[in-house]
Amino acid sequence: MKVVIDGAGEIGSHLAKLFFREGNDVAVIDDEKSRLEALSASVDIEPVEGDPTSIKALTEAQVNKADLFIAVYPYVQQEVNIVAALFAKSMGAKTVVARTKNLELLSSKNRQLLKNMGLDMPLCPEKIAAEQVVSQLRYNASSDSMDFAKGKLHIGAFRLDEDSPILDTKLVDFTTHFSKKESSAFRVIAISRDDTTIMPKFDTKFKYGDLVYLIIMKEGVKALNDYLGLEDFSASKVMIMGGGSVGAITASLLSSEMSSVKLIELKRERCVELAEEMPDNVEVINGDARNTDFLYEQGLSSSDAFVALTGNDEANILACVAAKKFGVSRTVAEVENMEYVRLAEEMGVDVVINKKLVTASRIYKLTLGDRANYVRYMSGTDAEVLEYTVSEGSAITKGLLKNIDFPSDAVIGGILRGNEAFIAVGDTQVQAGDRVAVFTLPSCVKEVDRFFK
To answer: How many domains does the chain fold into?
Structure first.
């Protein structure tokens, strides 16, 4: 597949690495030679030096042959990306995506207007990240989570500490602690250990520090949480550090779900802007959230959740660590440096949000066509989670799962059939119309996709 990326900033560079890793032909346009050189040093791309809307640069990058054109140019007015995408579409690119910060353009009505003009997908990484924060605040036990199958199936990740009852236990023995009915309501689908994702076998042992991924039916959550010593809770009071785009959108989204939302911003001028645009139940506070005494004065110890969304990864991580010491049950940090993600988790941050990953998930779905309803990367692992609707006659329906030679680095976790959700096992046969949740390593995404054609 031919992919052209307009912009070698953080998101563009991450996408370039992702698409190249999966065997695609990738060209990247940027007017900063240093950014192109830095990217070329780590991945074999075709660098094209030029302005984001330069017809010459677009022609040199061969957008007329592009299966996918992505405009995520940094440090420009975001309308520039839309113009670049529309140029690419008119020059022959099949599918075009553009980054924008204009939330008005993301309404369903305006999306259709842009679609009619030729833009297949407008996206706002800040809004995507904010939505991810809100989603994570609906759960307490998991360090990362998502729902599938209309909420009837849930994927959660659980970090094993020194008190975990399953340390040094084999997977086959873990399930014996539950009744047959209880054990049929969940399945361990992966383990992240020392920067490696393991698809577990029956004799795989759980170790200290493992991040264990499970797919769980709603009726299996209580038994699993009881055994693992995890507790559910619902947040009603949230404190947010950072009044930038992600923080502001998050506060606005949470205002309809929480009884109290406090948004702390260091810059006084920005506080004035926020106070005018935020809903009435969002309290905007001017102050330095890096000061723990200040946070205590603002009621941190009585907050259910603390969310750090400044542009400084280190400050976000340390603030969350401090919040934990004050007894806050749930902490969320925006961490854009990929090397800091695992460090944040090891320091006790409950949820790590990375705009590059969540944005890449949205864009990557386009490469799988209409078969995949959903694609997402989960923190702590390089694996991807996909949800497919099964087509009539697709290869996945040709036999029992244990007999169809499904890739060993992928797991079908759960299935929604009509209104019935269930966990997939070896004797399960997938049927046309099923909605299927798949956990897979990047190396075999394309092979998995072929089973659903």
So the answer is: 4
